[in-house]
Amino acid sequence: MNLQLFSEERTEKATPRKRQKAREKGQVFSSRELNSALLLFTGFLLIKITGKNLITNSMDFFEYILTDVINLDIFNIQSIKAFFYEVIIFIAKGLAPIALGLCAVGIIANYMQVGFVISFEPLSPKLERINPLEGFKRIFSKRGLLELVKSIVKILGVAYIVYTVINKYRTYFSLMLDMQLTDTLSLTAGIAFEIGIKASAILLIIAAVDYFYQWREYETSLMMSKQELKEEYKEVEGNPQIKSRIRQVQRQMARSRMMQNVGKADVVITNPTHYAVALGYDASTNPAPVVLAKGADKVAEKIKQIAIKEDIPIVENKMLARTLYKTVEVGDMIPESLYNAVAEVLAFIYSLKERGFS
């Protein structure tokens, strides 16, 4: 059995890095059906809310056309300006609230699904978009079949709503001939509103189902194989072997610098075999002695060899050496709790130097 095949199967959820890369490429999840259904539903609600005002404005505008516009001199600049001024007012009063409401809903619905994304990659030309074979594949693909079924369901649903509503009001159609114009417009608007709201509700249900299906397809398309996860980990964290080698080189460089500082020490305190700590004291720069180097086992032996070579005193103090090694880092001053013990050692060393001993 080829185990490599299992590593290439997409069985893992997408990582945040994979999702971010997809967003940068413009590959985001968005249901156009949901946006369209929300806009249609909102449009009919806005028409219902502003319907009376829209009918009133329309009647006033038609009255203006039939009374005042007929008497205007169309070749007069002032008359043309007045006419266009009335047209703008009619549009602003009747259609602007609906247009602004639809724009707001469209922006909010899209933002809730996608967020704020700017990507020009979807606009870049791709040869597969004009390839007839790729086009046929898209038409007869699983997605194409789903879109066909979805369109048929929408048509049947809307047709059923239109039929039931018209059948409900069929007795009123013969009475419209005897109604006033405002009553006829009101009844027609009511029928149209009922058809629109019910049809929008059907489309919203279909859009909700489509939303979850599209979300599932999008998540599936982002899934990663185990090999892809490993490759991404290497990109983000770096190759483990390379990182291990870098850490090894860094430790060697730090140890080399530490060994160079042993020559500046005033004394090396040992365990005597397991630990070695090199201390240096300069009253003009530090108020307390500083650990210049420390090590255990082989490193401790190396520190003692350098101390012997540089003629640096070596003092055996098991407890002090162990405490310094475990509690003080290289480059740090010794803590106050060790002042007395270290001072005794340094005083002993300085007294030996004054007497000419090394």
From TrEMBL:
Name the UniProt record assigns to this protein: Flagellar biosynthetic protein FlhB
Residues spanning the membrane: 34-51, 98-123, 144-166, 186-213
Organism: Tepidanaerobacter syntrophicus
Annotated region described as Disordered, given as residue ranges: 1-25
Keywords attached to this entry: Bacterial flagellum biogenesis, Bacterial flagellum protein export, Cell membrane, Cell projection, Cilium, Flagellum, Membrane, Protein transport, Transmembrane, Transmembrane helix, Transport
Keyword Transport: yes
Primary localization class, coarse: membrane
Biological processes, Gene Ontology terms: bacterial-type flagellum assembly; protein secretion
Annotated NCBIfam families: flhB
GO cellular component, one term: plasma membrane
Membrane topology: Multi-pass membrane protein
UniProt KW Membrane keyword: yes
Purpose: Required for formation of the rod structure in the basal body of the flagellar apparatus. Together with FliI and FliH, may constitute the export apparatus of flagellin.
Location of the protein in the cell: Cell membrane
Family: Belongs to the type III secretion exporter family.
